[in-house]
UniProtKB/TrEMBL annotation:
InterPro entries: Depp_CoAkinase, P-loop_NTPase. It comes from Panacibacter ginsenosidivorans. Transmembrane segments: none annotated. Pathway: Cofactor biosynthesis; coenzyme A biosynthesis; CoA from (R)-pantothenate: step 5/5. This is Dephospho-CoA kinase.
Length: 202
């Protein structure tokens, strides 16, 4: 059984860049956000509960109307909490099943809200990807073509970045100053070493 390692970081932290380096090293990655979308599109029980929560308008031609849902949950904390309560347990179960099928030394479970969703439970280690707020804001504005105010509103939905990093076992800084690849390699070697030590102990 591989080590179960979470990887998280706030919006605009450059998490995808870091994940792609791990993928190049041959490490399998579970994308929790993609799994959540899959569950909302394909899981009959999840779809039924979403329709009960948001009404028939939640789906158009059997496709989730993400814009409609986002318009509600970004302005209604209770509805967001209720949506997460529907989707997150299913996503966590999907991740667990996927992890058990992997044969590498360790696997990565990627989620922007790893701690907020309870998805960090059961993991051996967590890697945090950190970038200063001004860089995160600019990256997100450029990537998503949204205003600074919109980015700040999204950030407010996530726990404080410094607090999040304190909860992580490893932190990779992606601030356009420090080289990222050597940091990833250092974490990679450490995780391989931990796994080998565990295997040696039986």
């Amino acid at each position: 059984m591989p080590l179960k390692v979470g990887i998280t970081g706030g919006i605009g932290s450059g998490k995808t860049t870091v994940i792609n380096i791990f993928k190049t090293l041959g490490i399998p990655v579970f994308d929790a956000d993609a799994a959540a979308k899959k569950a909302m599109h394909e899981n009959i029980d999840v779809k039924k509960k979403i329709i009960e929560l948001f009404g028939e308008s939640a789906y158009i031609n059997n496709e989730l109307d993400r814009k409609y849902i986002a318009g509600i949950v970004f302005n209604d904390a209770l509805k967001l909490e209720q949506l997460n309560a529907i989707v997150h347990p299913v996503t966590i179960a999907m991740a667990e099943e996927w992890m058990q099928q992997q044969t590498s030394h360790y696997v990565l479970k990627e989620a922007a809200i790893l701690f907020e969703s309870g998805a960090a439970a059961g993991l051996d280690y967590v890697i945090g990807v950190f970038a200063p707020q001004h860089i995160r804001i600019q990256r997100t504005m450029n990537r998503d073509k949204v205003s600074r105010e919109e980015v700040l509103k999204r950030m407010a939905k996530q726990i404080d970045e410094h607090m999040k990093m304190k909860l992580c076992d490893f932190v990779i800084t992606n601030d356009e100053q420090q080289l990222v690849i050597p940091q990833v390699l250092k974490v990679h070697e450490k995780l391989l070493s931990i796994k080998n030590e565990r295997d040696a102990k039986g």
